[in-house]
Design brief:
Blueprint: E1 7-8, E2 11-19, E3 23-30, E4 35-42, H1 48-51, H2 53-59, E5 69-75, E6 78-84, E7 88-90, H3 91-98, H4 103-122, E8 125-126, E9 135-138, E10 143-145, E11 152-153, H5 181-197, H6 210-215, H7 231-240, H8 252-268, H9 277-284, E12 302-304, E13 311-313
C-alpha cells in the first residue's frame, strides 16, 4: 500500500485509482517531466521473472486503443510498472451510470475494443480478462484496453492453460483452462451485449450452470431485451457468443468487418429506436446471418433462428427446430 506524496524514484504518488486481484494502480506524477502517469504495483513482489511478464507483453503492443507502457522499475525494493494515465472513466462505470448505450455509440466503442484485440492477437497475445472494467474511456471518447496482467502468449499448438478471467465474461472453454483467441471475442460479445442492453446476458455461472453455458442456453438474444437493436446486430453478437469455438468468430478482423457493414447500413437506412421490431426487418430487407468479407453470403431467401441459428424459411414465425418465436 502506497500513500499520497510517497516517492518511488522520480514518481510521486498522488492517489489510488483502483485495485484488483493482481495489483493496485496509482495516479502519480513524474517529477522530472511534470507529467501524470499511472503506476501499477503488483500485490505479489517475490519473483522478478514473473513480475516482468506483463511489461514485456505490453512492450510488444503499440496501438492507440491499448494503454501504453512507459517503463518497469524497482525502487525501494518495490517493483512497479509505469503506464500512460488515461483521464476518464472505465466502460463499466459508463454503463452503470447510463445503462444501455445508444446503438451508434456502442458500435463505435465495440469497434475500438475490437481493433485493440486484433492488434494484440497479431502479436500472439490473448487478453483472457476482457471486460468493461478493463476498458478506459478517455475524456475525448477514445477507448483504451488495459490490464494485460492475465495475458499470455498463445503458441500455435497450445492453449492458455490457466483458469483466469472474470466468470461473467469468460467463454465456456475458459472454465476448462483452454483460452484461445476466440475466447477474447466471446468476452467482447458479452461486453457488446452489456453496452447495448445495460445488463449482462446471464449471471455469473454457478457450477450447476456450466452445462447450460456449454449448450448456449443461458443467452437471450439482445434484440429481445432492447428493441432498438436490429436483428443483424443481434445475430452478430450471438455469433460472438456461440458456445462452440468453431461456430464463433475466429478472428477479430471478421467481427470488425461485420460491425463495419452494420454501421454502413445504419447510415444508409437509420432506424428509430421507436420502430417496431417487425418493421425493422422490412427496412433492412431479408434477414441474413452475419458474414465477413472472407465468407460466402448465405442464400438470399434464408432466415436463421435467433436461438439455435439453424436455417428456416423467411416467412416462418417459429423455428421448426427449437420452436423459438422469431
Amino acid at each position: 500500500m502506497l500513500f499520497a506524496d510517497q516517492l518511488l524514484g522520480k514518481y510521486k504518488i498522488v492517489s489510488t485509482l483502483g485495485s484488483g486481484g493482481f495489483g493496485t494502480v496509482y495516479l502519480a506524477e513524474d517529477t522530472w517531466l511534470d507529467k501524470k502517469v499511472a503506476v501499477k504495483v503488483p500485490h505479489r513482489q517475490e519473483q522478478l521473472a514473473e513480475l516482468l511478464r506483463e511489461p514485456r507483453l505490453l512492450a510488444k503492443l503499440d496501438h492507440p486503443n491499448i494503454v501504453n507502457i512507459t517503463t518497469a522499475e524497482k525502487q525501494q525494493n518495490i517493483f512497479f510498472i509505469v503506464m500512460e494515465y488515461v483521464p476518464g472513466d472505465t466502460l463499466e462505470s459508463v454503463i452503470a451510470t447510463k445503462g444501455a448505450l445508444e446503438v451508434d455509440l456502442a458500435l463505435g466503442y465495440a469497434t475500438q475494443i475490437g481493433q485493440a484485440v486484433e492488434h494484440a492477437h497479431k502479436q500472439g497475445i490473448i487478453h483472457r480478462d476482457l471486460r468493461p472494467a478493463n476498458v478506459l474511456v478517455s475524456s475525448a471518447g477514445t477507448l483504451k484496453v488495459a490490464d494485460f496482467g492475465t495475458s499470455r502468449f498463445l503458441e500455435i499448438s497450445t492453449h492458455g492453460t490457466t483458469v483466469i478471467g472474470s466468470p461473467a465474461y469468460m467463454a465456456p472453454e475458459q472454465f476448462r483452462g483452454e483460452a484461445v483467441f476466440a475466447s477474447d471475442l466471446y468476452s467482447l460479445g458479452i461486453t457488446m451485449y452489456q453496452m447495448l442492453t445495460g445488463v449482462l446476458p446471464y449471471d455469473t455461472p454457478a457450477p450447476s450452470d456450466l452445462e447450460q453455458l456449454h449448450r448456449g442456453e443461458l443467452v437471450r438474444p439482445p434484440h429481445m431485451v432492447n428493441s432498438s437493436i436490429t436483428r443483424e446486430l443481434s445475430s452478430t453478437i450471438m455469433k460472438a457468443l456461440s458456445p462452440q469455438i468453431a461456430d464463433r468468430y475466429q478472428r477479430a478482423g471478421d467481427l470488425l468487418a461485420d460491425l463495419k457493414e452494420i454501421k454502413a447500413s445504419r447510415r444508409l437506412t437509420p432506424v428509430s429506436s421507436a420502430t417496431p421490431r417487425d418493421s425493422i426487418s422490412n427496412v433492412q430487407g431479408i434477414v441474413r446471418e452475419p458474414r465477413s468479407k472472407h465468407q460466402t453470403q448465405t442464400h438470399p431467401t434464408a432466415n436463421f433462428c435467433w436461438r439455435c441459428r439453424k436455417p428456416m424459411h423467411a416467412r416462418n414465425n417459429h423455428c421448426p427446430f427449437c420452436g423459438e418465436a422469431q
